[in-house]
Design brief:
The protein has 468 residues and is an alpha/beta fold. It has two domains: 290 residues, Aldolase class I (TIM Barrel, Alpha-Beta Barrel); 130 residues, no CATH class. Helices cover 31% and strands 16% of the residues. It is built from 13 helices and 18 strands. The strands form five sheets. The protein has an eight-stranded parallel β-sheet with strand order 3-11-10-8-7-6-5-4. The chain is globular. The two termini are 13 Å apart.
Length: 468
């Protein structure tokens, strides 16, 4: 029995529960969790973002970028990404035992996204049921899905975004669009699709937004068999009972991103799992420090707090006297052609006295004040860039044309590949970005996890199906 008669759905030619494992970033969702989710009858998701490969003894192969140029390191990254994702898909398929289904998740804004996706699908015929893809506007997703005969599930955050994708490309390949993932931009972990018209501080009720999405899909002639997947903030199914078998919403499925992190099969390190049990309401911050330029949600740990503090130590400047910029800056910079407001000069001198003695220019004509070790770390990370994004604000890398965004590298951001690889492989959780959905505080409140209980994926799916 399942909650409120939740029905299995047909997907990739088989019956599966409408429960999807969220595909989380760098090595936070792998073959072990995805294969187990599929074995439990759901849709498991392998993250195809810098996935791990293994040597002959089964140890994870370190991703070393030793080429001299960024362009060459970018090619190394693509090779690692394809090899790792192929290995993860094959292992997940074996674990699934032919049950459920295996999807892969890619970020359209990752460096070489199309080449990686095509390389993985080319090497895994018949093993991947579908591709979920967001973080950008993946117009080419349907075309690639058609070439390899797999389902595609675009990740969007508004009816407007879906309509743009449908009009431009997806209407040409309607039969392979198995579902549309609505990822709530105020509740989901990782990168979020907030538009300029939406206020990050004012969350909107997802129901009217998803209702509008279904209305848009119907207006465009999308089949009623195409499910909408609710992603972000999903914990207990009983809290979504008015969404199930609701004609306004239509066919519905649910994606779980945060809850599978705390399972026996979850590949994240134990320290990360332990930290999830301590998260309190408000501890997950929707921020805009990501080098992608998107908002994203992560635990407000010391790493994130340091980025907040860095941006607070920021003043605007001009190269000549202009407007309020009437005094010369005499700390943090070399030369005299930095003009600032008098109050900002006072603040800059105070930061300098506190040890933040170096000012770094940003692309927005501001200066941020950092310590000499911080400056050295920022500059080294920028030099080591391996092109993990299609456009990177932190290093000014672009993965095509002239390989530069044409903008000044932004010291208010960080190397996302470095920190996600580090935390996923045992690095200190306080010194790295720790993605989580905004419902992560519920680990502390949900009696299912009391007494340090950690379920298997199978036990979690069984629990979810009861409504809890």
């Amino acid at each position: 029995m399942s909650f409120k008669g939740l029905e299995p759905m047909m997907y990739a030619g088989r019956e599966v529960w409408p429960l999807i494992e969220g595909g989380k970033g760098v090595s936070a969702t792998n073959h072990a969790s995805a294969g187990a989710w599929a074995a439990a009858g759901g849709i498991g998701t392998v993250s195809a973002v810098n996935a791990d490969s293994y040597d002959a003894s089964g140890k994870i192969v370190p991703q070393v970028y030793d080429a001299l140029t960024r362009k060459e390191r970018h090619q190394q990254l693509i090779r690692y990404a394809i090899d790792g994702a192929v290995e993860q898909v094959r292992r997940a398929h074996d674990i699934s035992g032919g049950k459920g289904a295996i999807n892969i998740n890619v970020l359209w804004e990752m460096g070489g996204a199309q080449e990686v996706l095509e390389g993985v699908l080319e090497a895994t015929p018949g093993l991947v049921a579908g591709v979920t893809c967001g973080a950008g506007m993946p117009y080419k997703l349907s075309e690639i899905a058609a070439r390899y005969n797999v389902a595609y599930l675009p990740i969007i955050s508004s009816a407007r975004a879906f309509r743009a994708l449908w009009k431009r490309a997806y209407h040409k390949v309607p039969d392979l669009m198995a579902a549309v993932v609505y990822e709530d931009p105020w509740l989901a972990g990782g990168h979020n699709g907030l538009s300029n018209a939406e206020d990050p501080r004012k969350p909107e009720d997802p129901y009217p937004r998803v209702k509008a999405l279904r209305e848009t899909m119907r207006a465009e002639g999308v089949s009623e068999d195409t499910a909408i997947v609710m992603a972000g903030g999903v914990w207990f199914l009983r809290e979504w009972d008015n969404w199930i078998a609701n004609p306004e919403i239509g066919k519905i499925a649910f994606q779980f991103g945060t809850r599978p992190l705390l399972t026996a099969e979850s590949p994240i390190p134990q320290g990360w799992k332990d930290a999830l049990r301590e998260i309190a309401p408000g501890d997950v911050l929707l921020h805009k420090f990501s080098p992608t330029g998107f908002y994203s949600s992560a635990v407000r740990n010391p790493f994130l707090r340091s980025l907040e503090a860095r941006s607070e130590r920021q003043i605007p400047y001009s190269r000549v006297t202009a407007g309020a910029h009437t005094v010369q800056l005499d700390v943090g910079v070399k030369g005299k052609n930095f003009w600032v407001a008098p109050d900002d000069l006072t603040r800059a001198r105070a930061w300098n006295g506190a040890g933040f003695t170096t000012a770094l220019r940003t692309p927005d004509d501001t200066l941020v004040f950092v310590t000499p070790p911080e400056r050295a770390g920022i500059q080294q990370d920028q030099k080591d860039c391996m092109g993990c994004l299609s456009h990177c604000a932190f290093s000014s890398w672009k993965d095509h044309d002239d390989f530069t965004t044409g903008r000044l590298a932004d010291p208010r951001s960080f190397c996302i590949q470095k920190t996600l690889q580090d935390i996923a492989h045992g690095g200190p959780i306080d010194d790295n970005l720790m993605f989580a959905g905004h419902a992560a505080y519920r680990f502390q409140q949900d009696p299912f996890y009391s007494n340090n209980y950690t379920p298997t994926v199978g036990q979690l799916v069984e629990r979810i199906l009861t409504g809890d």
